[in-house]
Amino acid sequence: LRMDNNTLDVADLMESLKLKESSEALTRIDRYPPYAPFYGIMGVVCSSVFSSFGAAYGTAVSGTGISATAVVRPELIMKSIIPVVMAGIIAIYGLVVSVLLSGELAPSTHYSLPTGYVHLGAGVATGLCGLAAGYAVGEVGDIGVRHISEQPRLFIGMILILIFAEVLGLYGLIIGIYLYTVNIR
């Protein structure tokens, strides 16, 4: 490299880096930077972690409602366990998207930055929808099973509300799978 009067010769620099003076080489560096897989990895992490947080919250809160119901009416324990099962399913949604996204991860020379952004979006969408669904299932499950011990006719209404809360997580799964299938290479 020649440096005259604190100036750098760009042609010498490109030649020393073995780069062609073409827009194709520069575009390749911009499109496939070394940090591109980071965004895909964060999509995998967000999908599984946030969905698991939602499922854990839903399970914990619903579990306290089941315990309170079991004290008053022990025969309703098996009926009351439905919110816990539904909360656990939310974590599976995040796991599915995480497995799909992790199968697409590759070294930075084959994993583009736009693909990383799309995979991050898929993971965040699935994870946050799972978190919201877990919260909703937990709150509805807790209050629902407590009140079923007093009024058993509330059971069908509680199940319907739980289904609507669970669908929030399913929407995130659908968005995550759709974004996974987008070919943005």
Series of secondary-structure elements, N-terminal to C-terminal: EEHHHHHHH
Low-confidence stretches: none
Average pLDDT, rounded to a whole number, is 89
- Tally the helices: what do you get? 7
Largest sheet: 2 strands, antiparallel
Lateral strand order in the biggest sheet: 1-2
Give the N-to-C terminal Cα separation: 35 Å
Shape type: rod-shaped
**What is the helical fraction, as a range of percent?**
over 70%
What structural category characterises the helix and strand content?
A: mainly alpha
Count of distinct strands: 2
Radius of gyration: 25 Å
Strand content: under 5%
Please specify the SSE layout and strand pairing.
Blueprint: E1 3-4, E2 7-8, H1 10-16, H2 23-31, H3 36-72, H4 77-80, H5 82-104, H6 113-148, H7 155-181
Antiparallel strand pairs: 1-2
Helix pairs in contact: 3-5, 3-6, 5-6, 5-7, 6-7
Describe the structure.
77% of the residues lie in helices and 2% in strands. It has 7 helices and 2 strands, in the order E-E-H-H-H-H-H-H-H. The chain has helices at 10-16, 23-31, 36-72, 77-80, 82-104, 113-148, 155-181; strands at residues 3-4, 7-8. It has a two-stranded antiparallel sheet with strand order 1-2. The protein starts with a strand and ends with a helix.
